[in-house]
Structure formats: C-alpha cells, structure tokens
Write a structure and sequence with these properties.
Strand order of the largest sheet: 3-2-1-4-5-6-7-8
Largest sheet: 8 strands, mixed
Number of strands: 8
Helix content: 40-55%
Structural class: alpha/beta
Radius of gyration: 22 Å
Strand content: 15-25%
Oligomer: single chain
Order of helices and strands: EHEHEHEHEHEEHEHHHH
Number of helices: 10
Length: 273
C-alpha cells in the first residue's frame, strides 16, 4: 500500500525523480486503483501475469516489469489473489531488498499475515492492510474511506498510517489480523452473501422502490462486479466466515419455520367459529 516519507525521500509532484519506488504485484482492478492515487507519490512499476495491461499501465504512468524487478522496489504492494499468495510471497522473499516495506491489500488478514511473517526475511518491514473499498465504491474518490492496518513486522506501520491519513485522506483503523477477520466475516461475508442471493432472484425492481431498498440495491451494485476470487477469499479464506454463514442460514431457516407456523394458525377471531 502507499507509504509516506520512506528512507528520507520526500514524495511530491515537483520531484518525481526523488520519489521512492513502489512495486505493485497484481495489476488488476485494485492494483490499477492504487496506481491512480499513488502516482504522484511514487515511481511505480507493476507485474501481472495477465495479458492486456500495457494500455492502462501507460495511461497511469506505470512501468510493467518482471516480478523480480518489481520486488526490488522500496515499497512492494501485493495485490495478488489469496490462491496464489504464498507462491508470490515466496518469489518476493528472494528478491526484496533490505529495508523494504512489504504490504498486502487482501480482503482477509489472518492467512496472508502468517504467510508473510513466515516467508519474508527479517530485514524488511511488513504491514497487512485491507482497504475497505474497491473501484466501485471509490469511483468518486477515496477521501474519507476506511482502511484497516495490521502491523506484522517492524515499526513503519506508524509512518504508513500517517501517510494514509494526511496524504490520502483515509480513515485508518489499527487492528490485528484476527480482529479484522472476525469483523470482516460479518461485514463482508454477509454483504457478499446477501448480494449473491438477491442477484439470483433478479431482475430486482427499479420503479416502485423504497429508500431502504434503494440503499440495498446500491450495496449490491458495489460488490456484484468484484472478481470471483474476491468472493472466494471472503467466504473460504476467512477462518471465521463459515461460523457466521452457518448462523445466518440457521436463523433464516428458523424465521421461515416461524412464519410457516404462523400461517397455519387461524386468526384469533376466526378460531371462535
């Protein structure tokens, strides 16, 4: 993720040549969003195994490079799917330079944090983050949006948090990976789960709607175009998601039984006849 003044290099528009380097591993939708907002603060390079990234990279002023080259940046941002995360971190570990800051931006934190702590060398700082927004919810800007920051190794999470607040205008939530995943299992897990169910019930009404339904539809629209691996990570890689999901379905089933039983009981005034 973003950094502030690292290694004494001031980051501003007037001295791009003095900016710290940022390597983005995974140049999909979120990697591109990060590049859009961090271009004035860093010299950015990016790696992505997918084809067709050259045009958008050029538009954002990002240099496409090999994973090895990108991993040698001052700050390495990992925006790779959870399914390939351990493999990616293994490759970063052998290439990253002493003093680098390694940051991930995944939707779950317990598993990636353990992988980074286990595989990355002691001479780098590690911070696990989760921007609580994506390209859809950030389409009008990121100021005021939330980001979770989990210190893993080293102390530069303090500088990072200050930069996120002061330079990007984000609301920083300092937390631990376990606490993050416990809350995210409800916040994200249920949001995506309900969105999936309602989309399968579609098309949803758009004419005669209430304000509450409009807000629900807006919430669905913010997550319905997320990549499949995002939903998979939220529901399968979060160690607390299954418990929340089972409780939600159990309560829904219980409510259904209550309603069915209520329908079988005649109204009070009819029971007298």
């Amino acid at each position: 993720m973003p950094g502030g003044k690292f290694k004494g290099r001031k980051m501003n528009n007037n001295s791009r040549s003095q900016n710290a380097s940022l390597g983005i591993v995974g140049f999909g939708a979120f990697g591109q969003l990060a590049a859009l907002h961090l271009g004035q603060h860093f010299e950015i390079s990016a790696f992505d195994p997918s084809m067709g990234r050259a045009t958008v990279a050029k538009q954002l002023g990002v240099r496409l490079a090999s994973l090895h080259d990108v991993s040698q940046a001052d700050v390495v941002l990992i925006a790779a799917p959870v399914s390939s995360f351990e493999k990616v971190v293994n490759q970063i570990a052998v290439a990253c330079k002493p003093g680098a800051l390694i940051v991930d931006v995944g939707s779950v934190k317990v598993v990636p944090s353990e992988i980074m702590r286990r595989l990355l060398p002691n001479h780098v700082d590690i911070v696990a983050t989760h921007p609580l927004f994506g390209p859809q919810s950030a389409n009008t800007g990121i100021e005021g949006l939330k980001i979770a920051v989990c210190p893993i190794q080293g102390r530069r999470h303090l500088r990072l948090a200050a930069f996120l607040r002061k330079s990007l205008g984000l609301t920083v939530i300092m937390t631990a990976p376990e606490e993050h995943d416990q809350e995210a299992a409800v916040v994200q897990g249920l949001t995506h789960l309900i969105a999936k169910v309602l989309l399968r019930m579609g098309p949803l009404p758009t004419r005669m709607t209430t304000k509450s339904f409009d807000l629900l539809s807006e919430a669905i629209s913010m997550v319905q175009h997320d990549a499949p691996e995002v939903f998979e990570a939220i529901e399968k890689s979060n160690p607390y998601a299954e418990t929340v999901r089972r409780r939600f379905f159990d309560l829904a089933a219980s409510l259904s039984v209550e309603l069915e039983n209520a329908l079988r009981i005649p109204p009070h005034n009819e029971s007298r006849h």
